[in-house]
Here is the input.
Amino acid sequence: MKKFFFYILVFVYSYTFSQDDNSIIVRQVDPYSYEYYNNYEISRNDVYYSVEGALKNINSVRVLDLSNSNLDELSYKIGYLKNLEVLILKNNQLSELPYQIGNLKKLRILDVSNNHLTEVPYQIQNLKKLEVLILNNNQLRELPYQLGDLTSLKILEATNNDISEIPYQFEKIESLRKLILYHNRIKEIPYQLSKLKQLKIIDLRNNLIDEIPYQLKYNNLRILY
Here is the structure.
């Protein structure tokens, strides 16, 4: 039987069961992790491991874990899960995401790491409640500028891709706290990121960056490059 463990970001997030009410309580660990911003309870019955099973209980599904499922395609029916808050798709063979993913208006966590994505659908801009987006270890050449519309986003990771630039439209993500983009082909850091007062960490190691814009040097910001 599968255990209730989700691996989000570079941390291991374990959920423990309360003996009193059979709920899963997130343990707070890192000040810039998902747990810090989302310390809420998830009912045991809200976690599903297949799209087919989730579609039988559309209104109750909050967490869908499809990791390590050897998926090469994600059904467009994923868009029917209107109450979904956490979607884990890591460690599959996905080369694209259906545009219907933009229908998941309550989604807060999306982890699509370790797949074969070559692009992110622009409809992701509709996920106004998204707080954590993990795109590590794919084949992305760019990050869509529409990510700038994700006004609730706190953590964005897209390491080990082929990304060449950071869209200046990211200046609109005022909630962004952590931007992790190491092992890409980024040549410069847009000075517009200096407008993000909540941003604490930018990790751009193993890119092609020569210098940091002076506008960023005087912020309370840790930049790794």
About this structure: The two ends are 42 Å apart (CA to CA). The chain has one domain: 22-224.
